[in-house]
Amino acid sequence: MAVTLTEFTRTLDPKTLPRILQIQSGFYCQVLKVLNFMLNLHFIALINILYKQCPKYCLAAVTLTSKTCVLKGLFRIVVDPQPYLSIQEIVDSLKISSHRLGQHTFISADQIQLPQDSVKEGESFRITAVSTDQQSGGHVDCELLHREPKLSFRLELSQQGHFTECEDDQFYTLRELAEWKIPKGRKRTVTAANAPPPKDVLFSTLLENISGELTLTPVYELQAVMKIRKSIALIPSNMDVEVMDVTEQFDVNTFIQPLSLQDVFHKPSDIFPMVTDVIEGPLVEMHVPVELLNLLHSDQVIIHKAYEARRILATEIRQESARHFLIPTTYKGRFKRRPREFPTAYDLEQARSDTEQLHVVATRGFDSTYSGLASVLAGDQFIVKKGKMSEVNGNGSAVNSLSCVKIKGKAHEPVRLPMCLDGGFMEVVHDKRQYSIDEICQRFPLPFNVKVSVRDLSFKEDILASVPGLRIEEQITDRYLLISTLDQSSCWEVPVNRIHMSVHLEKSWTGGAPTAVVNSAVEKIFEDCYYTMRRYAFTTVMPPPRPPKKPKQPPSPHPPVISRGNSTDRRNSTAGIERTMPLSPATLPKPVLQKAVTRGQSLEDVCIKIPDEDDPHDYEYIDEDELENIRKQFQEQSISISTKGKPNNTI
Question: pTM for the complete prediction?
Fold first, then answer.
């Protein structure tokens, strides 16, 4: 039965591709093989706009195309409030697979009884796989979240209920949203998760002074091939034609088989080397040398092998618009060290090396309130002895202090600094040697700051040489194809994940291994690519420890006492636990406030200390508006006193 192309695309299951279609109407009369359907690099976006100057909502329809930088942006998903009424509806609407983006989480509004246990009302679970069986009807494999030990179970596709999406704290590119996160027959609402694109872009100009949600409706293209031509035809899904699925009546092998570089990578290794026709491409998601682009625009190339290679991820040391690079291990340039900055003592511990000691100078002071842990003044110098990082004490408890040496002239004093010390340290670099990129990764803990001191002369243009400073972040393993021209005069490593093109494997190559030097490019990658690589890197980094607990005392029956002596003596003498809380100038005794002003004390010094009976940690939670009012009154009092001369300290 003939259907519109839009209807065919809406109901198309990607697992059944390729499909053979016969066009039944319109100006076309052709049989074509549909290879894939994909985002047409633009969305129809309905923007729920909140103007910052005038907080009123309005709607605007925008087409996001490949010419807008927002395609390279990152987005967070807004939970769809509409529930799914069965597991079958979830499976029909979403793409479920073992891929990390294909595992969706839901909350059940009803209790689900299992053979050995149950999913309670309000509990969340993740769908990890789907299995279809004509006899049993099929099922999904699930695991219950936030319960120890973890519970794995199965749900039949016929399971009824009210299943709502869980909150998703990850961020996604538009391509990932289109491929994995937009349910069939539904729209997807998102919010921007990163900084706006440059102001010279039309879309960013529209959003310059607004914030809000975008409701995305993707527009897809069908990738198809015809018998009469080798090239791939891109057919918009909303083309006004009717088609009929005639897959069972044709041999799909009578059509050519275009492959992406990722498809080629997954081919058996014994088929290489292969002479390959370039059908379409390349679409490049990075900055690459002209020589490599010329190679990829050839009509035919030789693909010699597929393999994984190591790369070093680095970022330009810059406050804004920092560039990101993937550096091959074969890079022949040399690097000199640059000083690193450490915001906390915990970062000093993370940077501890077993090859050298670390010399730093404090850039900001810190007053320690913890027994046995030292305070820090700006300008203090410390040495962190070399050795492996300590994660636990001998008794198995977590380390909450950093042991180091404080430099006092020619003397050295052992001290301990709180891991939670919110100060700042700058490294003092004594090492003037030059290192290769491999030596840096082997000798020093990452991240590590460097600058190119000798450029790689094998490149016509070494883009790293002009970068004032680089932060070497981590080593990664990525997928590559070794591709050369037919005469083998040019041979390059080609990343399959950042260069998109279609090829057709023509025949085996019998001319032997490549004779030209294998070139590896320094890749300047886009921001979304960088964050995709780094997305889960931070989940393996342990956060700094919480401030040390103070011994818990029974609550005092006495109210807090305000002392008129020195601010360090103002405390509740019966309380073992103390917590500083600012006072309003209106409630302070006048002499206390005036003394504070004339002595140059800050508002935070004018305080009382009261026991905290519930919280084992010494944290504070202060309303920002209240604190701002206190500061304002304090400043007005300061101005009033300074204009009247020296204040009288009697009431």
Answer: 0.59
